[in-house]
Write a structure and sequence with these properties.
Largest interface: A-B, 22 and 30 residues
Number of strands of chain B: 10
CATH class of the largest domain in chain B: Alpha Beta
Strand content of chain A: under 5%
Strand order of the largest sheet of chain B: 6-7-8-3-9-10
Radius of gyration of chain A: 24 Å
Shape of chain B: globular
Distance between the termini of chain A: 8 Å
Number of domains of chain A: 1
Number of helices of chain A: 12
CATH superfamily of the largest domain in chain B: P-loop containing nucleotide triphosphate hydrolases
Structural class of chain A: mainly alpha
Oligomer: heterodimer
Largest sheet of chain A: none
CATH superfamily of chain A: MetI-like
CATH architecture of chain A: Orthogonal Bundle
Radius of gyration of chain B: 18 Å
């Protein structure tokens, strides 16, 4: 296990460097720079600014300086949010995005798997058709359509829930964003879980379990679920990636001060350090989740050997 | 001798997209206590479905009609819950494919003790004791070690022995063995058949041995049923039927056995 973690960390570092290089290059290729305005600055001032941020040096040297700073844990100053470093911006926004993301992923996993299992057990009944029908809609309707409809209905017409703002992490403020973020994932996960549970139910070892006279409930809990949940574990990392990109939009719609907006605004304003800072964070998070899902898989399935 | 299973006018139908398919067509037979009945026939002759239907493990689209008296209880009239109390306890099963018939994420020990803990309400210790006993009967070595292993760590032959062990956990009256040797190599086949012969001799267990391999059946069975297209073609004493078959189909089936084996 420890060997696996060390190995993954060793792979993670070059991967991150490649990602940083990619973002670094891409941002520089985009026309304009962080200090390009509609009204051009006097050349001397621009010269001074560029010197202050090392932007006058050759690209390779800039990249070297940036990497050595990152190695020390410093993501550099933001070019656009004056007097803020990227570290400070991320630290203020990340807890909000993390709360949103973790709540959404936990709810999607629990509810999605549960609905999928029940639909599989009761396949070809009203319940199954209802779950599958609704989940089809859930997959088709993107969250940026769902979110305004939800806030219109529950926020404005019924007045149950606040439609925007963070409010110090108040649970009522969280409900709408988390629901609109997790509904599409619940839909996908429940469909995956249904088909893998049906497949497991039809397998030979379940016939053996029935032949052993094991009660139905125990067959499901002891023999079926541990096998049928494996595809969901593999889906953990892609689901997280989906939630990350989804949260960029959801944070905008519900006016949450997470890091999603830095990503969009940073890219539009050529805030080089901010964009790559957020990118590094997302990439590390994703790599961590892939590791986590590999570990979970090895725990659940004895046939998987950790190397 | 006392009759343990008496099947009368049993039919099994499957509701498929191609319409209703008759897998078993109005068959009747009986098995006496302590006897080993061999059921021979080609694939699709209904030999497996006959026994799946009377024990209630048909697939969802199958229905069975008729009478199947097991120990004077009509199995076809029982509910799923009542049947599940008989399966594993009074009737043991051994399936064709040992590679996929054991739960991959459960260790051998748990798959064994589960049976007697549920049916006999045994404590874990008693169940473990019984598990070691049955693994000894099926001649598996290093039992202590084996209980902690997972199915994928065992060979096909070992897994089939574990399967037989599972079927013996509750000292069943009757064992249904559905092609127990088909997926195994010839030497392992011999050893498994020897276990069946031992069970017959020492445990007085009634066995239904389903196989398409006449050679396998002739080694263990006392009586034989020849099935084709859901009907019983011929039944009787195993030796008599195989040496002097009366029916054309039986002769045809026997002609498929290589000369040197006879």
């Amino acid at each position: 296990m420890i060997q696996l973690i060390i190995k993954r960390l060793a792979i993670a570092i070059p991967t991150l460097i490649i990602i940083i290089a990619f973002v670094f290059g891409l941002m520089r290729v985009a026309p304009g720079g962080p200090f390009t305005n509609e009204r051009a600055l006097p050349p001397e001032i621009e010269q001074k600014i560029n010197e202050a941020y090392d932007l006058d040096k050759p690209l390779i040297q800039q990249f070297g300086i940036y990497l050595s700073k990152i190695a020390k844990g410093d993501l550099g100053p933001s070019y656009k949010y004056k007097d803020f470093t990227v570290n400070e911006l991320i630290l203020s926004g990340f807890p909000i995005s993390l709360t949103l993301g973790i709540s959404a992923i936990i709810i999607s996993l629990l509810l999605g798997s549960l609905l999928g299992i029940i639909a599989a057990i009761k396949r070809n009944t009203i319940f199954d058709y209802a779950v599958m029908g609704i989940s089809l809609i859930g997959i088709c309707v993107p969250s940026f359509v769902l979110a305004p409809i939800l806030s219109l209905f529950f926020g404005l017409y019924l007045g149950f829930l606040p439609i925007s703002g963070w409010n110090g992490g108040n649970i009522y403020n969280l409900i709408l964003p988390v629901v609109s973020l997790s509904l599409p994932q619940i839909a996908i996960i429940s469909r995956m879980m249904r088909s893998s549970t049906i497949e497991t139910l039809n397998s030979n070892f379940i016939r053996t379990a029935r032949a052993k006279g094991i009660p139905k409930r125990r067959i499901i809990t002891k023999h079926v679920i541990r096998s049928s949940i494996l595809p969901i574990i593999d889906y953990l990392a892609p689901a997280t990636a989906g939630l990350m990109t989804g949260s960029i939009i959801i944070e905008q719609i519900f006016g949450l001060p997470g890091i999603g907006r830095y990503f969009v605004v940073g890219a539009l304003q050529r805030d080089y350090t901010l964009v790559s800072g957020v990118m590094i964070l997302y990439a590390s998070l994703l790599m961590f989740l892939i590791l986590l899902s590999d570990i979970l898989r090895a725990i659940l399935d004895p046939r998987v050997k950790i190397k | 001798m006392q009759t343990i299973l008496n099947v009368n006018d049993l039919s099994v139908n499957f509701d498929t997209s191609q319409g209703l398919i008759k897998a078993v067509d109005n068959i009747s037979f009986s098995i006496k206590k302590g006897e080993c009945l061999g059921i021979a026939g080609e694939s699709g002759s209904g030999k497996t479905q006959t026994f799946f239907s009377i024990t209630g493990i048909l697939s969802d689209n199958g229905t069975a009609t008729g009478i199947a008296d097991f120990n004077d209880v009509d199995l076809l009239k029982l509910t799923e819950k009542e049947l599940s109390k008989i399966r594993g306890k009074k009737i043991g099963f051994i399936f064709q494919d040992p590679m996929t018939s054991l739960t991959p994420h459960m260790n051998i020990g748990n798959q064994l003790i589960e049976v007697s803990m549920i049916h006999k309400k045994n404590t874990k210790n008693d169940a473990l004791k019984k598990a070691k006993e049955v693994l000894d009967i099926v001649k598996l070595p290093r039992i202590e070690n084996l209980l902690k292993k997972y199915p994928h760590e065992l060979s096909g032959g070992m897994r089939q022995r574990v399967m037989i062990g599972i079927s013996l956990m509750c000292d069943p009256l009757f064992i249904i063995a559905d092609e127990p040797t088909t997926a195994l190599d010839v030497t392992t086949q011999k050893e498994i058949l020897k276990i069946f012969n031992d069970l017959k001799k020492y445990k007085d267990i009634t066995i239904a041995l389903i196989s398409h391999d006449i050679g396998v059946i002739s080694e263990v069975s006392d009586t034989i049923l020849i099935m084709n297209e859901g009907r019983i073609i011929e039944k009787g004493n195993c030796k008599e039927v195989l040496t002097s078959p009366k029916h054309e189909y039986t002769k045809h089936l026997l002609s498929c056995v290589p000369e040197w084996m006879k």
